[in-house]
Amino acid sequence: MAEDAQIHNSIKCDTLEQEEVQEDVGAGLVPNHQLIKSGEEIKLPLLSKNESPPVASPVNDGLSNQRLSSLDVYRGLTVAAMILVDYGGGLWWGINHAPWNGVTFADFVVPAFVFIVGVSVALAYKTVINRLDAVYKLVIRVLKLFVLGLLLQGGYLHAVNDLSYGVDIQKMRIMGVLQRITIAYGIVACFELFAKRRILEADKTFCGIIRAYCWHWVGGAFLACLYVGLLYGLYVPTWQFEAPEGTGSMVANALTENISLLQVDCNVRGSLSPGCNAASLIDRSIMGISHLYKRPSYRRTEACSVDSPYSGPLPVNAPAWCMAPFDPEGLLSSLPAVITCFIGAHYGHILLHIKGHRRRIWQWSTTGAVLVVSGLGLDFAGIPLNKQLYTLSYTLLTAGACGLAFMVNYVIVDVYGWKLSTIAFKWIGAHALMIYALVSCSVIPLAIQGLYWKSPENNLIATILGTLGLS
């Protein structure tokens, strides 16, 4: 998502050294009738069982400046998944975000974007000639992407079936998906520019990569400690907010006769509940409650919806926090998202420095499996999987799953060469930001519904939504 010409610059794998060609062919990871040499396909006759394959000439690093097809395909699949979630989540809860604890298919989409950005950053900054110029371009890019996120998700564009546009700056949503990705991209890119060591040819092993990028791991560990310390250490007092018009009479803890002011009783420390968590406290204190997301997923919990896990009317005496704003892309929960980006960068480092499909796949799959098991272990130990808070269990589980998905795409697209069958997703991935803005952020639907018959309600979008029962 946070990509442009520099982030998109990637690689075409894989020119192989003599031993690696023999290893990968023997393992079945490179079809024995097809080898890659200097970016060109060499057709070879099928080899007998005991026949040794020809070898390719050694090269410097096995990488060129062409795009990595599997990364584009993976990005395209993620954009398609986001569109499915945005427009189909209301039809079936399994492709909608979990109301609070737990994960669904939808909860893997944003981590996938952040992970992909990490891989792209590692590839884009593998060689930096002019660091000052790179920093200047990085700052400009971060500012442009953040402002674009404000326009797309800050409330300037209204919902479908609302032909008006514009937003009160006092109520503009500050954080969003693109803003979170931009923050992760900016931080990890700074580490790529300033905190990596030169890695020697003889040290291009898994441990050598860890040593060369040790400050990335230190940064990730620091963010994890900071996140845990704030989430569990901050004291959350009782707080109040103004209820949305017409909803105050439906919830408990109304403080005034006109029931416009609601109170959430907390006075706790370390709570992970929707109303009393430290992430919400930090967002309210720094950004202000009027700048938070107005339709949080926890409104579909049993406490807030009679039709849970779908949206529905409030139950009688629903807790006051059901009507409170909450931003799932808030400030505190963005810290572990940066960790996801660091993990993506690690996968990119393996791609850059480890030669041979078999060795790369082994390291990617091992890393992904360890992360998934660690995430599930933390969930079992009492740290719930929660996308809204981006808990560490959720961070590790989703990052590991994204790493495994990236590895599968790499095998299918770049090892076995299934590029024609994935060309549509590759195109989407190469134009991900444009498609995200036009489709996922409803720019195209909002433009189409501007054409109507006699009254604004009679437009194509309203007809489609009515047919699907979503209007």
TrEMBL record:
Report the leader peptide range.
none
User: Which parts of the sequence belong to the Heparan-alpha-glucosaminide N-acetyltransferase catalytic domain?
Assistant: 67-191
Domain of life, source organism: Eukaryota
Task: State if Transmembrane is listed as a keyword.
Answer: yes
Stretches that traverse the bilayer: 73-93, 105-126, 138-157, 177-195, 215-235, 331-352, 364-383, 389-412, 424-448
Q: What keywords does the record list, in alphabetical order?
A: Membrane, Transmembrane, Transmembrane helix
**Pfam families for the chain:** HGSNAT_cat
By what name is this protein known?
Heparan-alpha-glucosaminide N-acetyltransferase catalytic domain-containing protein
Question: Which organism's genome codes for this protein?
Answer: Adiantum capillus-veneris
